[in-house]
Automatic annotation (TrEMBL):
Organism name: Arthrobacter stackebrandtii
Polar residues compositional bias, start-end: 44-59
Native organism taxonomy: Bacteria, Bacillati, Actinomycetota, Actinomycetes, Micrococcales
Pfam families to which the protein is assigned, alphabetical: DUF6993
Domain of life of the organism encoding this protein: Bacteria
InterPro entries in the record: DUF6993
Chain intervals for the UniProt region annotation (Disordered): 44-77
Domain DUF6993 residues, every copy: 86-166
Compositionally biased spans, kind Pro residues: 61-72
Name of this protein: DUF6993 domain-containing protein
Length: 168
C-alpha cells in the first residue's frame, strides 16, 4: 500500500456519503434561516407594542424612557475632564502635585486622591500621569498623556482603592 492510496483525494467519494452530507447541509441551512427570522424586528400591524394611530391617521411616538440621574462619580468625572483638560493644555506631562491639585480643584477628596508615579524605577519620565478618586464604589480615573486628557469611571478594587500597589 502506497501513500497515494491512503489520501482522500485519490479515493472516489461514496454516493451514500454525498447524499448524507447534502442532507446535513440542507438541514443546517434551513435551521439557520428559520432561526434567523425570529431575530428580525416585527413589523406586523397587529403588534401590541406598535404606537396606536389616532383618528387623524398620525402616530404618536412613545414617551422617552426617563434617564437615571447621574451618579456622583459621573458628575465628578465631568468636572475632572474639564480640570485635567485645562492642565493638559498647559503642560504635556504634569507632575504628581499638579495632577492632585487638578483632581482636588474638580471636587475630589484631597485625602483619598491617588496619583501614579511620575518617574520610572530606572529614572525616566513616565509616558502618562494618572490620578483617581474613589466615590461610592466607583473610581473616577483621569489620565494626561501627550497633552491630552481622558477620564473614565471604573469599579473600585477589592482593596477599596483605585490603583494597584502601595505608592499612592
Amino acid at each position: 500500500m502506497t501513500l497515494d492510496m491512503l489520501t482522500l483525494r485519490h479515493r472516489p467519494a461514496n454516493p451514500r456519503m454525498r447524499v448524507r452530507s447534502g442532507f446535513v447541509a440542507l438541514a443546517l441551512s434551513g435551521a439557520i434561516a428559520l432561526g434567523g427570522c425570529s431575530l428580525l424586528p416585527s413589523t406586523s400591524q397587529g403588534n401590541g407594542d406598535a404606537p396606536a394611530a389616532s383618528q387623524s391617521g398620525t402616530t404618536h411616538p412613545p414617551a422617552p424612557a426617563s434617564e437615571a440621574p447621574p451618579t456622583p462619580a459621573q458628575e465628578l468625572s465631568v468636572k475632572v475632564k474639564e480640570s485635567l483638560g485645562s492642565l493638559a493644555a498647559g503642560t504635556k506631562s504634569p507632575s504628581r502635585d499638579q495632577m492632585k491639585a487638578a483632581m482636588v480643584a474638580a471636587g475630589a477628596n484631597p485625602d483619598t486622591v491617588e496619583v501614579s508615579v511620575d518617574i520610572t524605577p530606572t529614572g525616566l519620565a513616565v509616558d502618562a500621569m494618572e490620578a483617581a478618586d474613589a466615590l461610592e464604589g466607583q473610581c473616577v480615573v483621569g489620565q494626561v498623556r501627550d497633552g491630552q486628557a481622558s477620564v473614565t469611571v471604573l469599579p473600585v478594587l477589592a482593596s477599596g482603592r483605585c490603583f494597584v500597589g502601595d505608592v499612592h
